[in-house]
Amino acid sequence: MPPMSQPLRAVLGEDQPIVREGVMTILRRAGIDVVEAVEDAVDLVRATEEHLPDVVITDIRMPPGLQDDGLRAAQKIRAARPETAVIVLSQFLDASYALDLVGDDPSGVGYLLKEKVASPQILIDAIERVVARDSALDPDVISALLGRKRPEDPLAALTPKEREVLALMAEGHSNTGISQKLFVSVAAVERHVTGIFMKLGLSQTASGQHRRVLAVLRYLGQ
Q1: Domain spans of the chain?
Q2: CATH architecture of the domain with range 9-142
Q3: What would the CATH number be for the domain defined by 149-221?
């Protein structure tokens, strides 16, 4: 994160006062400047255009429609200001929301289940990753995608370790990050990644962390 003299600036969208105050407290304790907190999706877009924050954090289900207004606002913000990192909080485990948010570019995107905010460090870690232009997708959402039943599922050909690596790839972790989480060498992770791409028929030419994550997410979302 930037030095404390230049704190990250955040806009928060959440219509439930208790949750809004709780998230604001977490952010401020981490040294993040909440420049504005709003209660509806229309104000979320307006506040983002006005303050030009480093990161926008928003609930999915918000006024005025109380449907996926927050998600659609996040997509609008990403389209207008791709340099602004976005984290969406969802009350429900719906992988389609995560895939819709990612679109064609997983960089600077986070999708967390709202219950995870009870663990402040999870939210702060996600913010740090998306501001650094990585992605931060909830492990439970990735597990749901991995666990879907498909006829003649190619995932069945993966070893248990390859499935672990695939899940971490989809969450947005680099090979170095995966090696640290699984306590194996980077070279071992690279071998697993090569095996995964070969077994799933994914292009090895999809160079770059973001394109790799996108390739995996598109595969899992089929």
Answers
A1: 9-142, 149-221
A2: 3-Layer(aba) Sandwich (3.40)
A3: 1.10.10.10
DSSP collapsed to 3 states, 92-160:
CCCHHHHHHHHCCCCCCEEEEEHHHHHCHHHHHHHHHHHHCCCEEECHHHHHHHHCCCCCCCHHHHCCH
The dihedral region occupied by 169, where left means phi > 0, alpha psi between -120 and 50, and beta the remainder, is alpha
Task: Give the chain's radius of gyration (CA, Å).
Answer: 18
pLDDT digits (tens, 9 = 90+) for 16-42: 999 999 999 999 999 999 999 999 999
Q: Give kind and range of the element (H or E) at residue 13.
A: strand 9-13
Q: Tell me which DSSP letter residue 82 carries.
A: T
Structure tokens at 182: 């699984």
User: Does the model's pTM come out above 0.70?
Assistant: yes
> How does DSSP classify residue 201?
T
